[in-house]
Every structure is written in C-alpha cells, then in structure tokens.
Amino acid sequence: MKRLFLMLMATFMVAGLYAQGLKIGDKAPDFRLKNVDGKMVSLADYTQAKGFIVIFSCNHCPFVKAYEDRMIALHEKYASKGFPVIAINSNDPEVVPEDSFDKMVERAQQKKFPFVYLFDEGQKIYPLYGAARTPHVYILSKKANDLVVE
After folding, report:
1. 3-state secondary structure the chain
2. Is the peptide bond before 29 cis (omega within 30 degrees of 0)?
3. Looking at the domain assignment, is residue 91 inside a domain?
4. What are the backbone angles phi and psi of residue 118, rounded to the nearest 5°?
5. What is the CATH number of the domain that holds 132?
6. pLDDT digits (tens, 9 = 90+) for 111-123
7. Number of domains the chain contains
8. Residue 84, domain member (yes or no)
9. Which conformational region is residue 68 in: left (phi greater than 0), alpha (psi within -120 to 50 degrees), or beta?
10. Does some domain include residue 47?
11. Cα–Cα separations (whole angstroms), residue 13 to 9, 73, 129
C-alpha cells in the first residue's frame, strides 16, 4: 500500500510539472543567451522574424540526436519565411558533462548547424517555458510587440 501511495504521489508531482509553463496563446519571454559562436543572442535581435521555432535541446539525448537533421531541415525551410530555429541547451553540464558549452560548440560544428545553438547557463529559461524534456518544441509568432505561443 505504501508503495502504491508513493507511485501515485510521484505521478501527481510529474503531472504538476507538466501543467506549468507556457500554453497556447501565452506570451513567451525573451532571453539573452550565449551562442556557440560566443555572441549573446536575444529573440529581439531578429527584427525581421515573424516568429520562431524554439527547440529545447542538448548534446547527449538520443532523441535529440535522432531529431537534429529534422531541426536543420526545419530551419532551412522556415527561416527564409521568417521562422528561424532557435535551439537552446538547457541541461546542466555539472550533471551531464557532455552538455557543456565546449561540447555544444563541437556538436554544432560537427553537424554544421545553420541555426543558433544557445546555452541556458544556470538553467533559467527552460522553466519559464515549461520545457520538460528534450527535444521540446515551441512555435512562437509575433503579434504586435509580443511573442505568442502557437
């Protein structure tokens, strides 16, 4: 019985985590994060963009690795239409050393990422969005002066 109770509590805690974060129609926060080229990048820097495909990513996840070519294809198809891919590594390199900034630079060069690959140092941005796993994708559209989740 105690085991069942613990399993149910864990399920509700996880469900609560997924209930947080951005939902369709919510305003998405901007950020300023370091790209693999060493420059700081903000969504506001993309003055001509109509929106963004924001993908919370990392280096080590097998699902991300399987999705990287699709990320490149999405950027190549939609960046010219005003919706560039913005990849964000939200993992803590203290926990997973393969997700360090230096390893991000290597991965971006190896895969020839045509999009920015940003480091969420201190893991401050992913909780604002509610990204729960990698890859976790958000489509943002500019509406007036806001970025809105689609």
Report:
1. CHHHHHHHHHHHHHHHHHHCCCCCCCECCCCEEEECCCCEEEHHHCCCCCEEEEEEECCCCHHHHHHHHHHHHHHHHHHHHCCCEEEEECCCCCCCHHHCHHHHHHHHHHHCCCCEEEECCCCCCHHHHCCCCCCEEEEEEEECCEEEEC
2. no
3. yes
4. -100, 150
5. 3.40.30.10
6. 999 999 999 999 9
7. 1
8. yes
9. alpha
10. yes
11. 6, 36, 18
Taking only the tens place, the pLDDT of each residue in 9-23 is 333 343 344 447 899
Distance CA 42, CA 112 (A): 21
Give the global pTM.
0.85
Specify the amino acid at residue 41. V
Containing structural domain, residue 39: 23-149
In whole angstroms, what is the distance from residue 99 CA to residue 65 CA? 13
Residue type at 4 in one-letter notation: L
Evaluate whether residue 73 is within a structural domain: yes
- Which letter, b or e, does each residue of 110-138 get, where b requires 16 or more Cβ atoms within 10 Å of its Cβ? eeebebbbbbbeeeebbeebbbeebbbeb
For residue 145, the model assigns a pLDDT of 87
> What is the sign, positive or negative, of the torsion defined by CA atoms of 85, 105, 96, 31?
negative
Q: Which two tokens stand for residue 56?
A: 């919370």
Q: In DSSP terms, which residues pair with 42 in a beta bridge?
A: 32
Predicted local confidence at residue 126, as pLDDT: 94
